[in-house]
Amino acid sequence: MAHAIDWPQLKKRCLDDDTFVRELVAVFQRHGRGPLDQLRVAAAAGVLPAAQKHAHTLKGSAANLAAEPLRAAALAAENAARTGDSSGLTHLVEAVDAEFSRCLAEIDRFLATT
């Protein structure tokens, strides 16, 4: 299975500044769960515009982090919310959550070794 985060790409985006990479992933680790929790609540309540907004936020965070699998899952959730596919959205939120957890696990390993 591919990495949740493309570490070489992230390092390149951070201009090879290892301190900045650590700071960026630490911020994601501390604050990334908020939009995911909000996405889950909005999807469960059937509030699709809010779900679309929170999925979009996650998509942007994932893109900044070079976390392509999470970005793709958040994009799929965003599109489901935008098109009114509430049943599909429920399953996609689980995929987003799984990818988010993979990112956190990689970040934990990265921070433990740097």
Topology, pairings included?
Blueprint (H helix, E strand, L loop, with lengths): L6 H7 L4 H14 L1 H13 L2 H17 L3 H16 L2 H28 L1
Helix pairs in contact: 2-6, 3-4, 3-6, 4-5, 5-6
Question: Keywords for this structure?
Answer:
about 110 residues, 6 helices, about 0% strand
Beta-strand percentage range: under 5%
Which second-level CATH architecture applies? Up-down Bundle
Q: Count the domains.
A: 1
The number of strands is 0
Give the overall average pLDDT.
95
By helix and strand content, what is the structural category? mainly alpha
| N-to-C span | 23 Å
Largest sheet: none
Query: What ranges have pLDDT less than 50 throughout 5 or more consecutive residues?
Result: none
Query: What is the CATH class?
Result: Mainly Alpha
Quote the CATH topology: Four Helix Bundle (Hemerythrin (Met), subunit A)
Q: Cα-atom Rg, whole angstroms? A: 14 Å
In N-to-C order, the SSE pattern is: HHHHHH
Counting DSSP H or I runs of 4 or more residues, the number of helices is 6
CATH superfamily: HPT domain
Which outline best applies?
Answer: elongated
Describe the structure.
With 114 residues, this protein is mostly helical. It has a single domain (7-113), classed as Up-down Bundle (Four Helix Bundle (Hemerythrin (Met), subunit A)), CATH 1.20.120. The protein has helices spanning 7-13, 18-31, 33-45, 48-64, 68-83, 86-113. Helix 2 (18-31) packs across helix 6, helix 3 (33-45) runs antiparallel to helix 4 (48-64) and helix 5 (68-83) packs antiparallel against helix 6. The longest helix is centred in the last third of the chain and has 28 residues, at 86-113. The chain is elongated and about 40 Å long. The mean pLDDT is 95.
